[in-house]
Specification:
The protein is mainly beta and 405 residues long. It folds into four domains: 163 residues, Sandwich (Immunoglobulin-like); 66 residues, Immunoglobulins (Immunoglobulin-like); 63 residues, no CATH class; 71 residues, Sandwich (Immunoglobulin-like), CATH 2.60.40.1220. The chain has one helix and 34 strands. The strands form eight sheets. The chain has a six-stranded mixed β-sheet with strand order 2-10-9-4-7-6, with no helix packed on it. Strands 21, 22, 24, 25, 26 and 27 form a six-stranded antiparallel β-sheet that branches. The N and C termini lie far apart (133 Å). The N terminus is likely disordered.
Length: 405
């Protein structure tokens, strides 16, 4: 009876000793050689990476980057030509702070166990692989961490033994593999408060990202850069970021403006627009209520003009028409000077008569004075400079700067 009890105790101790020495069911977490961790030498003899073997880590397909959240098959290969029994442990950490990165799982692969400790996920061999000459491979599934984790380093430690039942002659190898996070790119989105305008106007386009942007107009690169674009032509606009992602396309339309109307005088107190429709008359800067026809009757001297609007809602405005009450109560057109700037330009008095023309130089000296009836006057050939011209007609004075080149 005593012999049986002693034999039972011996068998239990032998079993425990064998498990401790070979870790045939997988090592405790935290022995991959990652920063802050130990390695297999904590339980086995030998100096790390001093033998004739090695550990290699590979990812199926050899991707240059990982996509956040995607799963990858990772293979750890432990080899040593002098050994015949092998084991491993691997984990993945963020390269920036050595915190756990992603999770390990066995997937459909055999002889893999997984565990977690300290926020890290670990993959181990889960049973003794038996006696195998030269080396052993294990494949497990690593699911990449969330976006923004940055570069990830996978660490692995491998233990090789000579299967002599002790740690004597064991060898430990470590290695690591770093893979960067794939740079995800968000295509820009361009928008505008309007996609229609009138010729001569500007539509400002905006884009939503902070990335470097190249703007395209009708498929051709433009010279404008930055987060906004000043569009002035009808056509197709879009933006492309540095990664080649294209934005949505916007079709902008710049509708034509009507011809610039002219204002002429017809008879006593009647002003006529060159446009037969779409008119709005103004007097001294304010619209004249109800004055939308091709002509108006006026009884007051001042500044008149007309704005013409077409079916697109685009408008053009005439030059100001200066008028004053004539000697007989009518309205007369004001003088005009042309060309200006110009040498010896023509002064057209319009319907003004018995007017006096006075010219001052830049120093305020009178250099020309003449009284004349209605008609035109070619100004004298004076030195280059800036002059002031006055035409005095009854109690009305018309003034104009003249640039003599």
């Amino acid at each position: 009876m005593k012999i049986l009890k002693v034999l039972s105790v011996f068998l239990i101790l032998f079993s425990i000793s064998e498990s401790v020495l070979t870790n045939s069911g997988g090592a405790p977490s935290g022995y991959t050689g990652a920063p802050g961790e130990g390695n297999c030498t904590n339980c086995h003899s030998g100096t790390v990476n001093s033998g004739n073997g090695s550990v290699t880590i590979s990812i199926a397909g050899n991707p240059s980057t990982y996509v956040p959240g995607q799963s990858y098959d990772v293979t750890v290969y432990v080899r040593d030509p002098l050994a015949n029994k092998f084991g491993f442990q691997a984990t993945a950490v963020r390269s920036s702070n050595n915190q756990g990165a992603g999770t390990m799982s066995a997937g459909s692969f055999n002889q893999i166990s997984v565990s977690s400790s300290g926020g890290k996920s670990y993959a181990n061999h889960n049973t003794s692989p038996g006696i195998v000459q030269f080396g052993r491979r294990w494949t497990f599934v690593w699911t990449a961490p969330a976006a923004g984790s940055g570069a990830v380093t996978i660490y692995a430690a491998g233990n090789v033994t000579n299967n002599d039942g002790s740690t004597s002659g064991d060898q430990v190898y470590t290695n690591n593999l770093t893979i960067n996070e794939a740079v995800t790119s968000t295509p820009p989105v361009i928008s505008s408060s309007t996609v229609t305008a009138c010729q001569g106007d500007t539509i400002r386009l905006q884009q939503t990202t902070t990335q470097s942007i190249t703007w395209f107009f009708n498929g051709v690169i433009t010279s404008q850069t930055g987060n906004s674009f000043a569009a002035t032509q009808s056509g197709n606009y879009y933006a492309v970021n540095a990664n080649g992602d294209s934005s949505n396309h916007l079709r902008l339309v710049f509708n034509p403006k009507p011809a610039v109307p002219t204002v002429t005088q017809s008879g006593q107190g009647v002003l006529v627009s060159s446009s037969s429709t779409g008119n709005q008359w103004y007097f001294n800067g304010s619209p004249i209520a109800g004055s939308n026809g091709p002509s108006i009757n006026i009884t007051s001297g001042g500044v008149y003009w007309v704005t013409t609007t077409n079916s697109f809602g685009c408008s053009s405005t005439s030059q100001p028409f200066y008028s004053s009450l004539g000697a007989k109560g009518g309205v007369s057109s004001s003088p005009q000077l042309y060309p200006n700037p110009g040498a010896s330009p023509t002064l057209d008095l319009g319907t003004w008569d018995k007017a006096e023309v006075v010219i001052w130089d830049a120093q305020g000296k009178v250099v020309f004075r003449k009284k004349l009836a209605a008609g035109t006057l070619v100004l004298p050939d004076l030195f280059a400079g800036i002059y002031s011209i006055e035409v005095r007609f009854n109690s009305v004075i018309w003034k104009q700067k003249w640039i003599n080149p």
